[in-house]
Amino acid sequence: xxxxxxxxxxxxxxxxxxxxxxxxxxxxIKKYPFIFLSLISAILIIFSLGSLRFYDNYSPKxxxxxxxxxxxDVISIQLSSLKRNNIxxxxxxxxxxxxxxxxxxxxxxxxxxxxxxMIYSKSYRMLIEHENSEIIILSENKNKSVYKVYILSDExxxxxxxxxxxxxxxxxxxxxxxxxxxxxxxxxxxxxx
Length: 193
What we know:
By secondary structure, this protein is α+β, with helices and mostly antiparallel strands. The chain folds into two domains: about 1-60, no CATH class; about 70-190, Roll (Nuclear Transport Factor 2, Chain: A), CATH 3.10.450. About 40% of the residues lie in helices and about 20% in strands. The protein has six helices and five strands; from the N terminus they run ααααααβββββ. Strands 1, 2, 3, 4 and 5 form a five-stranded antiparallel sheet that branches. The protein is elongated. The two termini are about 40 Å apart.
């Protein structure tokens, strides 16, 4: 709500301020044209959006694994993060996916820079800024879930992946959290016209 108020003020403030300024001085002929006031509004919006990045409710904090998230939550968080990979900062989506990589998976795919290179590789780059995704349940049990994920890439090509999520069983902060253990190589399903 705070963000919306700040943006609304940024848009309206120059017009409202000039309206009261003109009323107060009883100016009949307006000196500042609409375009000039619109330009001031645009500049204020840019400054507002920049400053809101540092506001607590808008900070680029990543979602951390926790026991309240189920396997579908985890895969949905990862897919939606990759869909908007560079929001609110460059490669935020990849970093979010890394947060939900199972510790056993991180041993193979890490550290983060190596993981980023893997996501940008031929096998996974179509996940970055994809247009949409569909998740089909293949199997679910108390410790492991397997899904088939259909992706429509930004190049209008369809792919499918097998996405496996497991509970962390080792002691520590992540115990009983659902995290991704593997994602298969893609299967190309064709182009969409």
